[in-house]
Design a protein that fits this description.
The chain is of the alpha/beta class. It has three domains: 6-69, Archaeosine Trna-guanine Transglycosylase, Chain: A, domain 4 (Roll), CATH 2.30.130.10; 79-185, RNA methyltransferase domain (HRMD) like (Transcription Regulator spoIIAA); 207-394, 3-Layer(aba) Sandwich (Rossmann fold). Helix content is 28%, strand content 28%. The chain has eleven helices and 19 strands. The chain has a seven-stranded mixed β-sheet with strand order 15-14-13-16-17-19-18, with helices on both faces.
């Protein structure tokens, strides 16, 4: 059995450990061992008993990210251990999500799958990973062999700027598996086809986290005029067309996003008689538009990337929602989202409340949406919850 350097916690850390919170803050550690960033450590309570294993990051406020709570020793360096973790995550998706209609999904949602420091998204037989901490970087051999055993022959690494800058993750973006790779591929989501470019797409290629919300939009689209803002590759637009919308307008400020959107609309068999796209800033588009819509979708990028940015971001969300509320026909529907982790459900609802009051319209909440099942939230770790949405009836 491998033994690992030991971290002993202060008394005050026992409650969060009992509550299975996966982060151990530096202030809760009795003594910092002199070991390298990314090493696996054993976490001990004050009385010397084992509490679990985690990735160590000296100098970071989150000094340990715990990936296993256990009172008995486990060989957490073995390939078998990591394979089992990935296989468990895969089996939940297989049971509840993957089908002949859907072959793109999130396989690992970091702490939500008891695996801090990694995001892994699947597009058919390709896995795109984002490694967020050094601890996971050191496990790459075990991970690659596990993905292979699970049937994923192609693994591509994308990097996040913050992981390189703050966590000193040094792995370069690129393919981690040998041979030829499918760079551009067509994947299925609820029977709709989307072309995804693994190397150049935003995030890991596609916004997998809006799958359930798109299905909801489909059910509100029949015979409607729909405005989909921040449309990216047209996920919501395609579902609205599938749901029978008379006309869908897609708006994005990125030219390449608009091109992808038009391509996806065409691949699914819809023409310009029912879809039009606009390469424009959404704020400008909403201000200058003269047409009113039955249904509006607002799915902007995260306005608040840090706690400091929350106030400014809140003003941005309010302005956006107010502009949208002003251009919805009576009895229309607003799908509004925020993916800023720093703006929680309650604050988001207050912001939209403010916009509704200023718009002087009756607004009712029909649905409150969150993460789909392949983005599970560990109940002990609400910090991983970022996406929230409201479906509003606007009179
Ligand atoms: N709703 C999309 C995901 C949105 S991602 C989906 O379901 O796939 C956010 C998108 O907003 C990106 O495509 C980005 O290019 C676009 N964007 C960012 N700022 C914008 C702005 N001010 N106006 C319009 N589009 C913007």
């Amino acid at each position: 059995m491998n033994r690992f350097p030991v971290i002993t916690c202060k008394k005050e850390a026992e409650r969060p450990i009992h509550n299975r919170h996966p982060w151990l803050f530096s202030g809760a550690i009795k003594q910092m061992p002199a070991i390298e960033n990314g090493e696996i450590v054993e976490i001990h309570l004050l009385d010397g008993t084992l509490a679990g294993y985690g990735f160590y990051a000296p100098g970071n406020q989150i000094a340990v990210r715990i990936f296993e709570f256990t009172r008995t020793e486990i060989d957490v360096l073995s390939e078998e251990y990591w394979y089992t973790k990935l296989a468990n995550a895969f089996s939940i998706r297989k049971e509840y999500l993957i089908s002949e209609q859907t072959n793109c999904f999130r396989l690992i949602h970091a702490e939500g799958d008891f695996f801090p420091g990694i995001i892994a998204d699947v597009y058919a037989d390709v896995v795109v990973i984002q490694i967020l901490i050094q601890g996971v970087e050191k496990l790459l051999p075990q991970l690659l062999s596990s993905f292979n055993k699970l049937g994923f022959m192609h693994v591509y690494a994308k990097m996040k700027e913050v992981s390189e800058r703050i966590e000193m993750v040094s792995i370069a973006k690129g393919w981690l598996t040998p041979g030829e790779h499918p760079v551009e591929m067509d994947v299925l989501e609820n029977g709709n086809t989307f072309r995804v470019n693994i190397e150049t797409g935003q995030k890991t290629g596609f916004f997998l986290d809006q799958r359930d919300s798109r299905l909801l939009l489909k059910s509100f689209s029949h015979n409607k005029t729909v405005l989909n803002t921040f449309s990216y590759s047209g996920g919501f637009s395609v579902y609205a067309l599938q749901g029978g919308a008379n006309m869908v307008h897609s708006v994005d400020s990125s030219r390449s996003a608009i091109e992808m959107c038009e391509q996806n609309v065409a691949i699914n068999g819809y023409g310009s008689d029912r879809h039009q796209s606009f390469c424009s800033d959404t704020f400008d588009f909403l201000k200058s538009a003269t047409e009113k819509y039955d249904v509006v979708v607002l799915d902007p990028p995260a306005f608040a990337k840090s706690a400091k940015a929350v106030e400014r971001a809140s003003r941005g969300y309010k302005e956006l929602n107010l502009s949208a509320l002003r251009m919805i026909k009576p009895g229309g529907i607003l799908f509004t989202y925020s993916c800023s982790q720093k703006i929680d459900k309650d604050l988001f609802r207050k912001i939209v409340f403010g916009a509704a009051a200023d718009a002087r319209r009756n607004v009712r909440v029909l649905h409150q949406t969150g993460h789909p099942m392949d983005h599970p939230i560990n109940i002990f770790h609400p910090e991983n919850e970022y996406l929230k949405g409201l479906v509003l009836l606007v009179e």
